[in-house]
Design goal:
oxidoreductase, globular, 452 residues, YdcJ_bac-like, two-stranded antiparallel sheet
Amino acid sequence: MSDYFYSADRIRDRFSQAMSDMYQQEVPQYGTLLSLVAEVNQEVIERDTSLATALSSTGEMTRLHVERHGAIRVGSPAELSLLRRMFAVMGMFPVGYYDLSVAGVPVHATAFRPIDDEALTLNPFRLFTSLLRLELIANDELREQAAAIIASREIVTPQAVTLIERFEVQGGLNEAEAKAFVIEALETFRWHRDATVDLATYQALHHEHRLIADVVCFRGPHINHLTPRTLDIDEVQRRMPASGITPKAIIEGPPRRHCPILLRQTSFKALEESIYFADEAEGQHTARFGEIEQRGVALTRKGRTLYDQLLAASRQGEPSTSNANHQAHLAQAFVEFPDDQEVLRREGLAFFHYRVAPGAKADIGSTDNIEQLLAAGVLVAIPMIYEDFLPVSAAGIFQSNLGDGTQDEYSSQSSQQAFELALGAPVTDEIALYEHRQENSLKQALAELRGV
Ligand code: OOG
Ligand code: NI
């Protein structure tokens, strides 16, 4: 039966390509950024042969060309849970919980992404999906008006809803259904320059928070950026101005290191776009932007705690300065974080895939001692790439693209429980996923060595 279905991985692969094509048409600077990233990646691969070999051995070399993440923002629990069902068709599941309200952005979020090794290798397409927290709007009238506008829109086409339901009943879609699904699902994320509200309503919502206007005033959750993965973010950032792109001042995340950890990101501000209001007034809206990312090894809970500590310490009293100063300051703050693959592994700071070394003999006696097997060159440990996001970095990305005006403070409780209720499902703990993949790789490698 399952042969008859078009796999969820292939649907996701098609969808991410279709989304990328659409966004390239909508925001031409994104196309420029793709070329720049491809150019720099090619140079890194030619220059750094050991990195190239490592990328090829894990299958990352091929995924690099298709790897993207995007972001969308929805307005209600009903919208969030409907999208959860849509993404499940593509093998994308909610992983992690991100509370942005502490950073002055009235949303909380998850990332929809594939979770197993094979799916991640094929195409790791991820969507950072934020839910607007309308309860944080203090003005009752405005809050109710926003909720009513959201409740009256349909963000998923009726054909897409039918195909989602068919997927849920059949357990899959055939090729024709899958292709139709991709075309229909794409509609949800398209940009509409016609706002659904009049200028006065837009202005009232915008005055409360720019992000609220962006979520509430349009027909759907337009994709607001798509991010290619680079192997050298500092170099791409350096070259952006020559391509007519102005990056945000600072690269978010950890400093440049010999062994990259987690995620480094930078974005550029999109141009103001003309929009038309329901009362035919014309206006400007800035919501869509571009971003690049560089990914490193995933950290264990211990590693992540150290990262969070060092990052927090580095932010204390730092004057906002140039990226060069910021990076120098960060590098200083991170000297305590070991920058050697072996140390990261031995100290349990980062996650690794274990493999049998190519050509290693199956004869290992009876030892299960991982350290001995590694020392003997029978096993190898390969860094596991971080597949998720970082809340502090995400807040920086949000803020830079919402304008640098005054920042609201939302005093609210982080509420994963409320988020999961809205989602209609629990979010998966990302660290547990890495742990599981690491354990599995080790089990498999040991079984292989024993000739099981
Ligand atoms: C999402 C911003 C967060 C990231 O990469 O951390 C993000 C948004 O602006 O909707 O995309
Ligand atoms: Ni992003």
